[in-house]
Design a protein that fits this description.
- The structure is a single chain.
- The chain is α/β, with parallel strands linked by helices.
- It has 15 helices and 8 strands.
- Strands 3-2-4-1-5-6-7-8 form an 8-stranded mixed beta sheet, with helices on both faces.
- It is elongated, with a radius of gyration of 43 Å.
Length: 422
């Protein structure tokens, strides 16, 4: 599960590359190009956010919140405000605790949107998500207008492992909804997901058809939890916002499924939708497979948008901890190293002293031979002279040692300190 989550975040980050290049590059230029926090700084930042499809209302809220935080924290450098911007966007996009309550109750999910935004595939992927949670799911194929729409949805139902109620091509979609609602009650399913035909938000007759289907659900399944999700194409930018506003007039929108986020430069529209309409983004899609639709996570989305790595803080703390351990090891090594060096020098001196002992013995033997070759007349003084000669020998040895000691000192290795790192 962790690998799947990590893989989805990686795909989301890769999919938002164009948006990141479109927004973040301009934002960084504002933060790191301005010399101080003044009105010009706020105006440039506001312009950059609006150009990145963040939306006017969302941008105004972000700027006002940033002004308050700058005064509260007494910030002086523009670069220090980037973290405030990221946190402000996260706060605006966080989904409420009750956003997914429909998963805990018997629910009817009504999927609406214009043509080509990915409604049918989103229905199949959402059914797969709920099926993996252990829910009993039923799909209603109410898109009877588009050719082969039922066949496409049947394939997605097969992939998700759920049942489907459909109708003939050209049939009244309201009748399909009626049959599906009664089948859901009879089979005691947990979630009924209703797919609908794509329709333009400016076509009154088609929008009235949505109202009719909603009335049937309210009448036939009054105790069910209602969830109206609009599917929006992330590549359409501000046009997606206009679609959501129009559909919100005929259906009480409770959430947004934002699709095709794997290659758009207008991913900032997710922020605008939540701020402008007060409708949360609940699901986000970044690919074609059934696993590529996931619950929306504001922190992951903003981190991917601004290329923020959540594990950087933990890694930095680990590096600091390892550095502290290395410094402690170095300190202990520095304390213990001199004693080791002195011991090795003492051992070298001992070895050198032992090497001179044969020379001292040879000199003593030569002096003894010379003493025996002297005349017998000097025998009376020989008893004292050996002591004198011995003293002279000792003095000579000491003098030789003193003369050689500078060379020895030169040959002595200098003290070296060795440091070890983990």
């Amino acid at each position: 599960m962790a690998e799947e989550k990590k893989g989805f975040f990686s795909r989301l980050k890769e999919g938002l590359t164009k948006t990141r290049d479109n927004i973040v590059a301009g934002i960084d230029a504002v933060f790191y190009g301005a010399s101080e926090i003044d009105d010009d700084f706020y105006e440039e930042l506001e312009e950059t956010l609006i150009m990145g499809d963040i939306g006017v209302n969302a941008t105004n809220d972000i700027i006002e919140r940033m002004r308050e935080e700058v005064k509260k924290k007494h910030l002086r450098q523009p670069a220090e405000c980037k973290e405030l911007l990221v946190e402000s966007i996260k706060e605006q996009m966080r989904v409420g605790e009750t956003a997914y309550d429909f998963e805990k109750e018997q629910s009817v999910i009504f999927i609406i949107g214009v043509n080509g935004v990915g409604k049918t595939t989103s229905v199949g992927k959402l059914a797969g998500i709920l099926k993996r949670q252990g829910k009993k799911v039923l799909i209603a194929a109410a898109d009877t207008f588009r050719a082969a729409a039922g066949d496409q949805l049947a394939e997605w139902a097969h992939r998700a492992g759920v049942d489907m109620i459909g109708g003939a091509d050209g049939a009244d979609p309201a009748s399909v909804i009626f049959d599906a609602v009664n089948a859901a009650k009879a089979r005691n399913v947990d979630v009924l997901i209703c797919d609908t035909a794509g329709r333009l938000h400016n076509k009154k007759n088609l929008m009235d058809e949505l109202k009719k289907m909603n009335r049937i659900i309210d009448r036939e399944f009054p105790n069910a939890h209602r969830e109206n999700l609009i599917v929006l194409d992330g590549t359409t930018g501000q046009n997606a916002l206009a679609q959501a506003r129009e559909f919100g007039e005929v259906a009480n929108l409770t959430g947004v499924i934002l699709t095709k986020m794997d290659g758009t430069a207008k991913g900032g529209i997710a922020v605008a939708i939540q701020s402008e309409l007060n409708v949360p983004v609940k699901y986000i899609g970044v690919g074609e497979t059934i696993e590529d639709l996931q619950k929306f996570n504001a922190d992951e989305f903003v981190n991917a948008l601004f290329d923020v790595k959540p594990e950087e803080t933990a890694e930095d703390e680990q590096v600091l901890s390892e550095t502290a351990e290395d410094e402690q090891v170095l300190s202990e090594t520095a304390e213990n190293e001199p004693a080791v060096v002195e011991t090795s020098i003492f051992e070298e001196n001992t070895e050198k002293t032992t090497a001179y002992e044969p020379i001292v013995d040879e000199t003593a033997d030569n002096e003894t031979v010379i003493a025996e070759m002297t005349t017998t007349e000097e025998s009376a003084s020989e008893e004292t002279e050996p002591e004198h000669s011995a003293d002279e020998e000792s003095a000579a040895v000491l003098q030789d040692a003193e003369e050689e000691s500078p060379a020895e000192e030169i040959e002595k290795p200098k003290k070296k300190k060795w440091f070890f790192w983990k």
